[in-house]
Design goal:
mainly alpha, 35 helices, 2 strands, 62% helix
Length: 742
């Protein structure tokens, strides 16, 4: 009826099932033999049932249609009546083995329908006091597997009392399996199992302080290290466990006992001659330090200082695994407020680890240096990292460059030092400097007009690109900065607009198309600022109009025809300096670090925290926006507009102009000529530039004396915003100038 062959003997059926398993391992379908597997599972003989459950775990899944016919058999095997007395008969041992077979098969098969049908029986087997230790261990691990497949299978508040009883078991094997289940359940619903903390602390105290442990669970004289690790991992899920407790007064409470346990682990752990013992002890130690990290500022200061001193000893040992874990854990511990000073004491040792032969140790040392860096030691740490960058392996150079750039930005009290640091990075490891790094330099220089940062950056980059051979990234930064702020150094000897063009253009044939696109925009701005540059720029645009690259071709064609299509005022308005960049919560460098290392990385946490220097910069920016120097800047603009109107009136009504300019009675005659030249275009950033969108494109309507109608000046005012937007879109194209906020 079930499709099996009744003529097969027990031996033949088992032999054929093992052959089916081998065929399945080779990758072939063996669904034709499922009926024989079910026959073995239903058998009353232990030898046949064993083969049947093994084959069931390997060949079938919970979604298979035939599983519905075997559910009753599995349920019957699970609820096999256990022995009531202390002494077990041979049949009872077989019953335990059958229960374990059913639990193992159920955990391996899974399947939502099977889980819904069987999880109550598994919980019953686990909670039954008469179940043997072996069955309890198997049922706890089986239930853990079922909850991973179906997370909402168990209600934590209802199941927590059952776990509390299981945690009182004296068998360490049962406790180890139950703690695996508890950690899995608590990771899904943390608050439901907080009431079990005292039970966990009690077990930990028995193992660490009293050292009560069965002989078979001693590992190199360490009581059950795996259970200790699971207990500490559970406590790490509750960082507020010690908050609000007076440890001195609560001498009998679990919090005081927990503090004593952690202190004993810190004091007694040391490097051992036995590698196995050392590994076990250090695994417990590092989990205890992770518990201190989880407690954060609520942890007693003595524990944090003791952990930092111990880790300082471990990062100097020869064993690379211990050094790796020490560096990684110290980086996490240093993030706690008040702990970074203790980590700074080991800065010299960490710098030595940067030269370790193991790349993993070097990465952890770099992370720790990144975390302990602050305003006080930023310059020293960054200079050490830059010096080490010269000899660093290619596998770690990109990560070093990224973190050096972030540190230099976060803790630069003088942004000129930041510009110099980035230029050093480009000169040492230019191929590893991503676009987001030099984009960030441009953003910072553009957004901080205070002081002489923009002029300093322009002069420094002018000198950096003066040699015939320099990195292409340097050319990109210099092209943008000189195009925007080159006018600030144009009066210096050897840095005129013409010199700026020659210095940049000498790299034209050595750079890629994306850099050429930036150079073209810079040439257009130089030609707008300095008349002597226009004869130099025009041939470049003419030759590049037929470029094979569409971006270069389009830019040259549009810049060449711009002066013919629009008035000089409109061209000047289009080529003015770019506006400040939007300040985002996370810069492109921080996002790149997040992509590389993940949200839980100590370096990512450090990078996302604003430093005091960054907070001061943000306050200065807010003050500049809220209190702009309106009166000082607007006065020359208004006077220029008045002078431009006077010129137009003088052109169309000279008698009226003469009459208006004639000195009146009581007026003093100014013997000096006006220092201002009317509506002269000086380029972006100059004091005389008209910053109003429509000031240079006025249109005089009506007539003068009813006889002369003035001609239009420039283009209609309403078209200028659209033209500026179109030009900005051109500059912010993928191969072009602006970056993060495009």
């Amino acid at each position: 009826a079930d499709g099996s062959n009744p003529a097969l003997s027990s031996y033949q059926r088992k032999k054929y099932i093992w052959k089916l398993v081998y065929i399945h391992v080779l990758g072939y379908e063996v669904d034709f033999g499922h009926a024989e597997v079910l026959t073995l599972v239903r058998s009353k003989k232990y030898a046949e049932k064993t083969v049947g459950y093994v084959a069931l775990s390997l060949l079938l899944r919970g979604s298979d249609p035939v599983m519905g016919s075997i559910v009753d058999t599995i349920r019957a095997d699970l609820v096999t009546a256990p022995a009531q007395g202390k002494k077990k008969k041979k049949a009872d041992v077989k019953n335990d083995a059958v229960q374990c077979l059913a639990l193992c098969s159920l955990a391996n098969i899974s399947g939502l329908e099977l889980i819904q049908a069987m999880h109550l029986q598994v919980r019953q087997v686990l909670a039954t006091p008469e179940s043997s230790e072996q069955v309890k261990k198997k049922s706890a691990l089986c239930l853990l597997r079922l909850t991973r497949t179906s997370p909402n299978l168990i209600s934590g508040r209802e199941f927590a009392p059952h776990l509390a009883k299981l945690l009182q078991d004296q068998h360490l094997g049962v406790l180890t399996s139950v703690m695996s289940l508890l950690n899995g359940l608590a990771s899904q619903h943390v608050a439901d199992y907080e009431s079990l903390i005292p039970h966990v602390v009690h077990i930990l105290g028995v193992l660490v302080i009293k050292k009560q442990c069965a002989r078979e669970y001693l590992y190199y004289r360490t009581p059950s290290p795996w259970l200790q690790i699971k207990l500490l991992k559970f406590l790490q899920m509750y960082p507020n466990a010690v908050e609000g407790h007076d440890i001195g007064m609560d001498a009998s409470g679990y919090v005081s006992q927990l503090i004593n346990v952690v202190s004993k682990i810190l004091m007694e752990t040391d490097v051992s001659d036995s590698i196995n013992k050392s590994n076990a002890d250090h695994a417990i130690l590092f989990e205890a330090v992770q518990l201190i990290v989880a407690w954060g500022t609520t942890c007693p200061v003595t524990l944090r200082e003791g952990a930092m001193q111990l880790l300082g000893k471990f990062i100097s040992v020869r064993e690379p695994n211990i050094r790796y874990l020490g560096l990684m854990t110290m980086a996490k511990l240093a993030q706690i407020e008040g702990s970074v000073e203790g980590a700074k004491k080991h800065q010299a040792t960490v710098l030595v680890s940067l030269k370790d032969a193991d790349i993993s140790v070097r990465r952890r040392a770099l992370d720790l240096l990144f975390v302990i860096c602050d305003t006080d030691n930023a310059e020293r740490v960054v200079d050490e990292l830059v010096a080490h960058l010269v000899v660093a392996d290619a596998s770690i150079r990109e990560e070093m460059v990224l973190k050096i750039a972030i540190l230099a930005e976060k803790y630069a009290t003088d942004l000129r030092w930041y510009v110099d640091t980035i230029l050093k990075l480009i000169s040492i490891a230019g191929d590893y400097v991503s676009d987001s790094i030099w984009h960030r330099v441009v953003q910072i220089v553009t957004n901080h007009p205070q002081g002489d940062l923009q002029g300093y950056a322009a002069a420094t980059l002018f000198l950096a690109v003066s040699p015939h051979r320099c990195h292409e990234t340097t050319v990109c930064v210099a092209a943008y900065v000189l195009g925007e702020f080159g006018f600030l150094i144009a009066e210096r000897a050897g840095m005129s607009g013409e010199e700026q063009f020659h210095v940049l253009h000498q790299h034209w044939f050595n750079v890629g198309t994306s850099t050429k696109s930036i150079l073209i925009s810079t040439y257009a701005k130089l030609a707008n600022l300095y008349e002597e540059c226009r004869p130099l720029v025009a041939p470049v645009f003419a030759r590049s109009k037929n470029s094979s690259d569409v971006e270069v071709q389009q830019r040259c064609a549009e810049y060449s025809s711009m002066r013919e299509a629009f008035s000089p005022e409109a061209v000047e308005d289009l080529l003015r300096e770019m506006p400040p960049f939007e300040d985002k919560r996370r810069s492109a460098l921080e996002m790149r670090l997040l992509e590389k290392e993940g949200e839980n990385s100590a370096a990512v946490t450090k990078a996302s925290t604003l430093s005091e220097v960054e907070q001061q910069r943000a306050m200065q920016s807010v003050q500049m926006l809220s209190n702009p120097p309106i009166e000082e800047e607007m006065e020359p603009i208004e006077e220029q507009e008045e002078e431009a109107e006077k010129d137009i009136e003088e052109q169309y009504d000279p008698p009226r102009q003469q009459l208006r300019d004639a000195p009146q009675a009581g007026d003093e005659v100014d013997s000096q000529p006006s220092p201002r030249s009317p509506a002269k275009a000086l380029g972006p950033g100059h004091g005389e530039v008209n910053r109003d969108d429509g000031a240079n494109v006025r249109q005089i309507n009506g007539s003068v004396n009813g006889s002369v109608k003035p001609a239009s000046v420039g283009i209609p005012k309403e078209l200028v915003p659209a033209m500026r937007k179109a030009f900005s879109n051109l500059c912010t194209s993928p191969s072009g100038v602006l970056f993060e906020n495009s």
